[in-house]
Structure formats: structure tokens, C-alpha cells
Amino acid sequence: MQGYDVVVGGRTNTGQNYLNDFHTTGTVRPILDTQQNYTLEGASEENGITSLRFRRPRVTNDTRDIQFNVSTRVFLVWAYHTREDAENPNVFSKHTRRNHTMETVQIVFPPMTMMTPTPEPATTRVTRRPKSSGYQLGVSFLTISVATVLSMKTELGFQRFSICLLIGYFTVVC
User: How many angstroms separate the CA atoms of 146 and 164, rounded?
Assistant: First the structure.
């Protein structure tokens, strides 16, 4: 495990939240970074499940951190130990062989190009414009946009309803 950017965090028995930034030099205990680039936004523990919410700038200028960019794919590795002993950044136990998992992810995505609809050819008919509305949710690095178009009645007499859901790079039209 050479060159990993590591975060160790949790919640103590007394309810104190903690989060520390480390780096690895091999299969030994991670070394505490002199530059702490991660910010703990929240931690909770419920029914034996610890949840951490934290953030870090994409570019930290810390040589011990992985700099996130469009071409960077990283391994997210999470490990745990059954004892709460990691609040001291200088002394904590290694996870067992079974208490870890990993997944490869891309953190930063290239800018997305929005396609504009092709305008309909001009006609001599008079039509009402459909009522429309749009919603946008920002979720961490992912933006989800939902746009709806409603029209009460078309010239042919039927109802029309369409929804466009845009998630990351995929567009789904109903």
C-alpha cells in the first residue's frame, strides 16, 4: 500500500468526532500528514454503523496527497477495526485481513456539453407554448437536473407530458 492518501475518522465512546489525514509508505501504519487537508463536516454512529461526511479540495499542493483531476482514477479503500482506538493519530491498530474493501472510482469528470434542441420549422399555425419548469440539485461533485414540460392540449387533442432527467453523463427521456 505504497503512496495512498488515507483518512482515518470516527466517533469516540464519549461522542467526540475525529478525522485525520495520513499517507502510506508501505504495509506499515500510515504516517500522519503535516498538512491536514480534509475537513470533517459530520460524523454519526447508529446501531453500530459509523458514518463520516468530509471534504477536501481537488488540488491541495501537498506532495503526500493524490491530486484529483479528470484523468485520475483512484481506489477507495475502507477498512475498519472493531475497537475504537483510532482517535489518537499516533497509535491505532491495523485492520484485519477481512475488515477491508476497495472500489475503483473516478472523482472528477470532464465538463459536460449540453445539447440544445433543434428548433421546429416555422408554420403559420398559432400554438400555445407549453408550461415548463426546471429543478436542479447539487450533490457533492454530481449535479442532477430535472426539467419538465407540460402542455394541456395539442392541436390534435391529446395530452402531452415529457420529463428529462440528466444525471452525470446520461440523459433519460420519458
Answer: 6
**φ and ψ at 159, to 5 degrees?**
-80, 145
* CA dist., res. 99 & res. 9, Å (int): 16
Q: Which residues contact 96 (CB under 8 A, 6 or more apart)?
A: 81
Predicted confidence (pLDDT) per residue in 110-151, tens digit: 777 666 666 666 555 544 444 444 444 333 333 333 333 333
Query: 131: which strand partners?
Result: 150
HEC per residue, 119-139: CCCCCCCCCCCCEEEEEEEEE
**CB half-sphere exposure, 3, CA atoms < 13 A:** 5
Q: Please tell me the pTM assigned to this model.
A: 0.54
What would the pLDDT profile of 12-59 be if each residue is shown by its tens digit?
878 888 888 888 888 778 888 999 998 999 888 888 778 888 888 888
